[in-house]
Amino acid sequence: MLRLARRYRFSASHRLHAPQLSDEQNREVFGKCNNPFGHGHDYVLEVIARGDVDPHTGLLLNVADLDALVRRTVLNDFDLADMNRQIPAFGDVPPTTENVAVEVERRIAQAWTQTFPPSARFDGVRILETKRNHVELRHEK
Question: Which pTM value belongs to this model?
Fold first, then answer.
């Protein structure tokens, strides 16, 4: 079994603010990331696939197809977005890196089987928010 990871970049802004918490609690939990004006990051998204190499092509999957899937399901919406205002999934939950990973994984998983054969399975995503902070979410199906 082989694992393949492909990297993508997008820039987006967010404000970490949970509507169910008071303003004081939000400041305590999220610190400077609770700034009412938000702030931005240059995110790195890794999409990870696993499976066996096709003996005829020598490939796990066609990366051009992967690029198109990620562009269509993630990058077109997330790149240069104010995630709090422009991504409906973050209407009631703060766009933390953890929640961004959950939403990105959901979008890719939903489209995966329509794009790739069963031999190329979606394994998960890794999102790097800063040099010191990243989240990895394994797809469990």
Answer: 0.95
